[in-house]
Amino acid sequence: MPEVVPAGGTAAFRSGQSRSPVSEEQEGASSFSSAAFRFGVANLAEKVQRRITRMLTAPESWRIGYRRLGGPSILETASVPETGYTWLPDDGRRFLADPFLIEHRGRTWLFCEEFPYATQTGIISVCEIGADGLAGPMRPVLETGTHLSYPYIFAQGDEIWMIPESSAARDVVLYRATDFPFCWQAERKLLDGIAVADATPIMHEERLWLFASLIDQPGGSSWDALGLFHAPNLFGDFTAHPLNPVLIDAASARPAGRMYRQGSNLMRLSQDCRARYGAATTVAVIDRLDPEGYAQTVTHRIAPPPIWKAAGLHTIDVGGGFEAIDVISRRPPVS
């Protein structure tokens, strides 16, 4: 073994300081104990440094999970199962949020917001969920230079359309797939000169309605004021509801995914932002939706299971035989 010099040992002796004579056995024991102590301190320091590094490089971020549906979705049960989800990989350089699913020609695709930390600007990306339930590589499909998120995707006629959030540009733009799923062309602006978040369309009583969170409200935020806009169809002129904002409520204003029908009821997903942005998803029955009025009744709240230690869940979608959600946490939830 190489010679180990204990702190304050030989170096101190050579500098003229006195010390008591010791035997060779005592000298060796002292050297070994000192070396072990220094090793322990160094090992503890390394562990602390690794923990600090993990905390700095793995910040709280949004993550997307999905599962194959062999039974009811969480929209039907109002409860998130603790296990069964596959979580898209997180390389620490970006987060993924706002999942939307679509089946096209027998294949299932998951669209989402991809937010690289380096650019601080969201883009729209997509991956395929194969027949084996495994997700393919994530690929960017739409970048505009301004922040994009919430890629609401849907089929109408023979075309596939997408309405991503572009509130930073103060517009709502309709895109058409020219070569699905990777190539998109801007077709028209549905709204212009107004900042709204998470525009969500629904056809109701021969009118196309656009639900969105109003960002420009004085003294408000981007999640507590609901605005409505309507048009005869996707290519008609949209009119703002005269009562905008039709709802002011941090618990159920901002959209959280695709609207759907449950029996004769029109159901709406929204974010519960009372505790924090995107803390949970609320489900409401729409009681009234017409050019003169709006009313809804919240029926239940969907939150991540406590075992996940996740701080929020703010988008839910179902399509192609799968269910997708996003949660915010420092690490992937249990699977």
Automatic annotation (TrEMBL):
UniProt domain Glucosamine inositolphosphorylceramide transferase 1 N-terminal: residue ranges: 94-296
Top-level taxon in the UniProt lineage: Bacteria
Segments for region (Disordered): 1-27
InterPro entries given in the database record: GINT1_N, Glyco_hydro_beta-prop_sf
A UniProt-annotated Pfam family: GINT1_N
Record protein name field: Glucosamine inositolphosphorylceramide transferase 1 N-terminal domain-containing protein
Originating species: Methylobacterium haplocladii
